[in-house]
Amino acid sequence: MAFLTTSSEEYDVVVVGAGAGGGGSVHVLTDLGLKVCLLEAGPMLDPAKEFKEHKWFYDYGHRGADKGGAGYFGDGKPYGFMTTTSGGWELPGEPYTMGEGTQFKWFRSRIVGGRTNHYGRMSFRFSQLDFKCKDIDGLGDNWPIDYDEISPYYDKAEKFIGVTGTKEGIPSAPDGIFETPPQPKVHELLAREAGKKLGIPFIANRRAVITSNKNGRAACHYCGQCGRGCLTASAYAASQVEVFPALETGRLKLITDAMCREVSVDSSGKPDGVIYIDRNTRLEHKVRAKAVVLAASSCESARILLNSKSKHHPNGLANSSGQVGRNLMDTVGFGLSGYVPALEGMPKYDTDGFGGSHLYAPWWGYNDHQKLGFPRGYHIEFGGGFGMPGPGSYHGVARKAGYGTAIKQLAREEYGAGVGFAGRGEMIPNEMSYCEIDPNVVDQWGIPVLKFHFQWTDHEWKQARHMERTFTEIIETMGGKVRGLANAAREADGISVPGSIIHEVGTARMGDNPKTSVLNKYCQAWDAKNLFVVDGASFVSNPDKNPTLTISAFAWRAAEYLVEEAKKGNV
Amino acid sequence: MSELTQIQPAVSRREALRRIAATVFAAGVAAEMNPADAQHVHAAAASLKGALGEYERKELSEHEWKTVTRMAELIMPADSGGGSAVDAGAVEFIDLLCSGGEPLAYIFHGGLSWTDAEMRQRHSKDFVDCSEAQQKALFDDFVAVERATDKRIAASGVGPYARFQDYQAWDRSDLGAGVGFFDWMRKLAVDAYYTSPIGIKDLGYVGNGAFSSYEVPRKAIDYAMKRSPFKS
Are A476 and A371 in the same domain? Predict the structure, then answer.
């Protein structure tokens, strides 16, 4: 039977979650001299053991199809055998439920570094247009800050993490402090030419990859395998870039396999630590701390707050506004693939590059919304080139060719001539999309689980149709033909399944008004001055820009603010 | 068989990778990749035969093994660009996967039995004992069913929104089970081929390296631009 033991030591801060927000927090907090305890629900990461960088598929008898060909049945590792994803869409013994009519996918990564070990590293600053979105179209809410307030923290995050890019002066995509980006690949140059004709700007991609040596991290060596985890830490991961160095300061205590259940409060209702369950022993422990920073991922942090019920906080902690769990947003996703004859038979070259596309198109239609018929925008990511062949790469070719040498001939002919475009767009928060505690279900640790409710609205559907038209135009302007959905199994209905882009944010939003928001503009809870939420939960809106860089910037600012306020005796 | 059944990499390759890691981890120094090391990684990695070693049959019967071998040869035969799927380890690959789980094992045991039954009905012989012309005639029938299915999907106007199930709704129920199995056989033969050093060389994939800078060759850019609508 589990019972509670309390740490004898009181930490300055306990941080829950070792991903982008938690990694950034412990980096800054230990740097400023604080004694910090970091809880991670998964195990320690050992890059040398876990990362499959530079492996070939034939290094494994199953060639990447996984045991029993699990990958062929959709039961393999999410995003393929070689990725370093830890966790996935379903975790054994840790269910989540859905309301009627809801389809929602929740990707949880339980390991030091979390999803940053394998994510796409796209790193785009939000702009003033994003922070004051309601002023433009009357939808959703404005953020309680201006771009100029957060810009210095984007600077700090970019300087520390390392982000590629070029200065472009595009209002929807503010420039930053950039690493030199790699040269565009051939299919990207063709897309850029098509973009010129269509009025779509393709510019150097902004990814959290260093192309020069930095803080003991080596410059990118262009194997293009960031998703497998980067042994040289050239691609940013919170584990390698923030948590491991913070451990070396001697001011950080890391507790792994620690499943946080709730934030505990003292007799006055003030947070005084967190209670977690050790996954190995199933015993319950309490870590005492003067301040609590939640960075467990947007929905997991909301879950912890909602489960932190006490007589002072009957509806959960920091939830006097009733907004915890509300305003759940994901990114609108849609993909289309095409075939470009101009690329057929091109001299072979190494297209691995720095992983992901070397160019991307930031949203260009910010002045055209009257005409477009949908609010907000999307950016375009795309792929192509002579990729490493893997399981499944040539099933389509084989079906088309039948059998015999015809398969080989067609594969040679088409190699490198395929392209795929993906849109990543902004959703407007709506009342039908939220998460709450399911009163009837607990996970194997006895912690009540989340129940999701989610609906796309016309805004998102119209945007996805615009993506489809745009990608068709780009492919055709390149002299190519549309082939089909880039990922038919997932996006067969013309829009991504909610949650599947893994940009879920908004469940403890910040604001100017304690009645309608959970946090103030420093990610500090209105209801408890020593409680901060520094993952995507704080987001007021979910611009088309992937959330991680903004999580890093806000976490950095929150950590500095916490220390300043503590010095003044205000926490 | 352990879950990952990792093949022992050649020591020389491991050493090369160790040297890469040592170079890039050396704090503060420029991560200059010795081009000889990069080359070495490619060369060492390309020796699958040595890496595979002796394989022991696990799941398929001797007869099934022979049948799969013959089918893989027909599906991906050797040509001027490289060896066959069998040379690329397709039979070992299929046997190993079948030994690792029920769905595939049932698909192959069942599919192979169906094929022999069909061939005995047609020619009073098992598949492997039939002539090449007879074997190919069966595959031609399968492909004809697939083509008719694809044609129907194209005509239906669903375009890119066709679903996986649509492609599996064969137009001839009497051959349906065989077509479904043939598709599996082909998928696995093709995967074995293109994930092998033979298939990688055939396609001309030149990546998975480590370099201190990234460059796109001028001749590749010129080639595509000249053939594109942007040639002017």
Answer: yes
